[in-house]
Design goal:
eight-stranded parallel barrel, 2 domains, two-stranded antiparallel sheet, 12 helices, TIM Barrel, alpha/beta, globular, single chain
Length: 389
């Protein structure tokens, strides 16, 4: 009788497990496990360290174990670690040992504090997401040698990272691809994925669409069939006139009038008064600046991405979003509150740009280019007590 009872209980347990798996598959959401168990909900980017080093702090002291401890303590569950080819390998292809040591140290610290990590290949020598605004050009899409080099970069990275558990470390194969055609990105992306899959079949891969990883372009992705260890990623900085107000690396720097959120970012009167209508580049960057923005309008920006992720039964992830502190503080905090609500309401995992820096969760001295004390008011908005892991 006891044996029959035990078998019955085991059967019930199996049924419950199966139902849970199917429930998760039918409704992809933030926190829903992929087969490898890489679960993310709320994260922060460790920028300007092993990527885009602007000399704001001694490079290899910018992020340390205390930072990872603090990130864990305030309620984040993962970090995204941008890395650049030029930071990790010298011009002859020799690994920069100190850079790799810092990367693996960080992953070890993450393991210690039970934070998951995404290793994001942010910039390579043949591709920069902001090449046009910086007066450069990308050769990746026309140079087969450069494309093979991207594949080889991931083979080399896999050699270093393959022993980290699949449920703790994921790979993002290229940040914000800017290819002339969507299919150019699809072909190269699938080539990289195939190379990684030969080495690491269970590694979770973060994949975003072409043209700066914007959500409406997710529908153009041609993903590997039957690969469920993929998380779909998008970035959003809409409305740029607000989030990048006075950013000196964009044409928006030429707009000197005020901005607002919520509501019309630039009023009609301010647009007429401050916008040089002969500056076509500026006009293009302010294309939606006279729209009315609120939480519903923010959701519209990534609604197409939500539908695509649902059609593929894959988790959706916003790997970058943020707003500079150059806008009115109350407007900035309201913007962040609405963004977090938009993500949480729609089961979208997220990772704000950034930890330290001008978009960061620390107060930033723009003149000295240094991060100061944590901005706990902003942190509270990002990581509400009821949102904590």
């Amino acid at each position: 009788m006891r044996g029959l009872k035990n078998r019955f209980l085991r059967l019930i347990a199996i049924v419950i497990t199966i139902l849970a798996v199917f429930s998760c598959a039918e409704k992809p959401q933030s926190g829903c496990l992929n087969p490898s168990g890489f679960e993310i909900k709320r994260g922060v980017n460790l920028s300007h360290w092993l990527s885009q080093d602007f000399g704001w702090s001694p490079k290899y002291t910018y992020i340390n174990e205390n930072d990872i401890r603090f990130i864990d303590s305030i309620g984040y569950d993962h970090v995204r670690i941008p890395i650049d080819e030029m930071e990790m390998w010298d011009s002859t292809g020799v690994p920069v040992q100190e850079a790799f040591k810092n990367l693996t140290n960080c992953l070890d610290w993450c393991a210690k504090y039970k934070l998951r990590a995404i290793v994001d290949l942010h910039i390579i020598r043949s591709h920069h997401f902001n090449a046009e605004n910086e007066g450069g050009s990308n050769t990746l899409w026309t140079d087969s040698i450069a494309q093979n080099k991207l594949v080889n970069i991931w083979i080399k990275l896999s050699e270093v990272l393959k022993n980290y558990p699949n449920n703790m470390v994921a790979y993002e194969i290229l940040n914000e691809a800017v290819a002339p055609k969507h299919d150019d990105w699809n072909k190269l992306m699938n080539k990289v994925v195939a190379a990684i899959r030969k080495l690491e079949p269970g590694r979770v891969l973060i994949i975003g669409p072409n043209m700066w990883q914007i959500a409406p372009n997710l529908k153009y992705l041609k993903l590997p069939e039957e690969d469920k260890n993929i998380i779909l990623s998008f970035h959003t900085y809409t409305p740029m006139a607000f989030t990048h107000y006075k950013a000196d690396w964009t044409p928006i720097k030429n707009y000197t009038g005020p901005v607002h959120y919520p509501g019309q970012i630039i009023t009609n009167d301010d647009y007429i008064k401050y916008v040089d209508t002969n500056n076509l580049t500026l006009i293009s960057n302010l294309d939606n600046a006279r729209d009315t923005f609120n939480i519903q309008r923010l959701i519209e920006v990534f609604k197409d991405g939500m539908e695509f992720a649902k059609s593929k039964n894959l988790q959706l992830y916003c790997g970058e979003f943020g707003c500079m502190p150059t806008v009115n503080r109350n407007d900035r905090l309201t913007f962040y509150s609405d963004m977090i609500s938009a993500f949480e309401q729609n089961n979208i995992a997220w990772c704000n740009w950034e930890y330290k820096g001008d978009f960061g969760i620390y107060f930033f001295d723009a003149e000295k280019k240094t991060s100061q004390q944590p901005d706990f008011e902003l942190i509270k908005i990002l990581l509400k007590p009821d949102n904590n892991k």
